[in-house]
Specification:
SusD_RagB_dom, Serine Threonine Protein Phosphatase 5, Tetratricopeptide repeat, TPR-like_helical_dom_sf, membrane, cell outer membrane, two-stranded antiparallel sheet
Length: 472
């Protein structure tokens, strides 16, 4: 099933990574001492970080196991017998030995190591100084993103700010990890440009660093900084795409709403991405996994255009003219329309949907971050204004919420339907303290399932440096 992968044997950072090997070249390992010599080496090493963003671990099955299926908005998909092992993520019965828990952990550490290779070795290369500083800033921004994933899924993790000879540090606290992320993002934002030429689309920008920073402050409940930082992003000239369908089609990639987006164009060097394939319409475009739940369907208000532009149904004809086949009667009948690539645009050189970019951070979310922070600061006017901008695009009337409490609930709801199937629902429920109530019917246990376990082999190979998360 899996076609695009990063071998565990290449990198298990906590297990065996040394500073004399570098996971850059797809054809194998390269000794760092003989690699980091030229400007081209620096560029190639940084490109290896970006290639991970589209990888199996970061965007396909392991990612969906921890960010997707545990939420109430996503079900396993496909048919009941296909990859039934995924069900443990829906009913919270995964264990320390589960391969998905382990796969996402290993993948994120592979990515952290790639960033640290650049941050550690590129400063010594004789090359264009401006480019050098930018590549280091890009790497720090991306390191912050990977650490943000780790801390939200596993809680406190070891902090590695450079290549190490031995990787057996104890876990840092959640607060220490967040502070490390913030320092990386602030440093990156000071250097990164606001835009790139078309040949470099997909590289992280100043707006991406500040946008992610505002989201980090939101998770820390530092409302003032979340408000101020999201205001900086709002002032940069981003805009909502007026057409919600266009936003997620290839023609809408890197548009006015794009703050942080992964370039997944099919190429001879990196292949494509399986992000869209694993979720595509079963037996027509893809495998049919990670599909919208009935709970999500019922969450949309009457008249919300996002409902039918988020949920793709058997038997419908898309706005682009593709008839969605009725398919296997034992399989699910609805799919994630946000990953749909029209048949006429699909690049057959790679798997289905490989041209579908991954939207990690959109301007709509920046508006909702700003609205939530403003509301918590008592600024209900600004909160209402930015919430309503998102609602207006969805052809909905302005919110009827008028108090801080009702507006808070309205903003949380708007995040659910605006960002549906984009990987935010589960961690949002945890962040806002709703998980224990909303997910209890699925088996969620408060005090345990807010985070996932540290994988068993990582625990064993830490030689006692790690403590396990409660309840596992």
């Amino acid at each position: 099933m899996k076609k695009i992968f990063l071998s565990i044997a290449l990198f298990s950072l906590v297990v065996s990574c040394k500073d004399d090997y570098l996971d850059i070249k797809q054809e194998g390992q390269t000794e760092a001492s003989s690699f980091f010599k030229t400007q081209e080496d620096a560029m190639q090493a940084t490109s290896a970080i970006y290639s991970f963003l589209r990888s199996w671990e970061n965007s396909a099955f392991p990612y969906q196991f921890v960010f997707g299926v545990p939420a109430d908005d996503v079900v396993k998909g496909s048919n009941p017998g296909d990859s039934a092992f995924i069900n443990v993520y829906d009913n919270f019965t995964y264990t320390v030995s589960d391969e998905g828990v382990r796969g996402y952990w290993i993948g994120q550490w592979q990515a952290v190591n790639r960033t640290n290779q650049v941050i550690t070795h590129v400063p010594a290369i004789q090359m264009d100084t401006t480019l050098k500083n930018r590549l280091i800033a890009e790497s720090r921004m991306l390191r912050a993103y990977f650490y943000f994933n780790l801390v939200r899924i596993y809680g406190g993790v070891p902090i590695y700010d450079k290549v190490e000879a031995v990787y057996e540090k104890p876990r840092n606290s959640v607060e220490e990890v967040y502070n490390f992320i913030i320092s990386d993002l602030i440093a990156a934002a000071e250097v990164l440009p606001q835009t790139y030429p078309s040949s470099d689309l997909g590289r992280v920008t100043k707006g991406a660093a500040l946008g992610l920073l505002s989201k980090v402050y939101l998770y820390k409940k530092d409302w003032q900084k979340a408000y101020e930082t999201s205001n900086q992003v709002i002032a940069m000239g981003y805009n909502l795409d007026p057409d919600f369908n266009h936003l997620f089609r290839p023609a809408g990639e890197f548009g006015s709403e794009s703050v942080f987006e992964v370039n997944c164009q099919c190429s001879s060097q990196y292949g494509g991405s399986q992000y869209a394939q694993v979720q595509g319409v079963r037996n027509q475009f893809g495998w049919g996994f990670f599909t919208p739940s009935n709970a999500l369907e019922n969450a949309f208000e009457a008249g919300d255009i996002r409902k039918e532009l988020t949920i793709l149904r058997n038997g419908e004809t898309t706005p682009e003219g593709d008839l969605i086949a009725m398919g296997d009667p034992l399989s699910v009948t609805t799919f994630n329309q946000k990953v749909y690539v029209p048949k006429a645009l699909n690049n057959s050189a790679c798997d289905y949907g490989s041209i579908q970019n991954i939207r990690i951070l959109r301007f709509a979310e920046i508006l909702l971050i700003n609205a939530e922070a403003a509301n918590e600061l008592g600024n209900t006017s600004t909160a209402t204004t930015n919430l309503n901008k998102v609602r207006t695009r969805a052809t909905l009337p302005g919110t009827t919420a008028t108090t801080q409490a009702t507006l808070r609930t309205a903003i949380w709801h708007e995040r659910r339907v605006e960002l549906a199937l984009e990987g935010d629902r589960f961690v949002d429920l945890v962040r806002t303290g709703q998980a224990a109530t909303v997910l209890a019917p699925y088996g969620f246990k408060a005090g345990k399932n807010e985070v996932f376990p540290i994988p068993l082999d990582a625990m064993d190979q830490s030689h006692g440096a790690f403590t396990q998360n409660p309840g596992y």
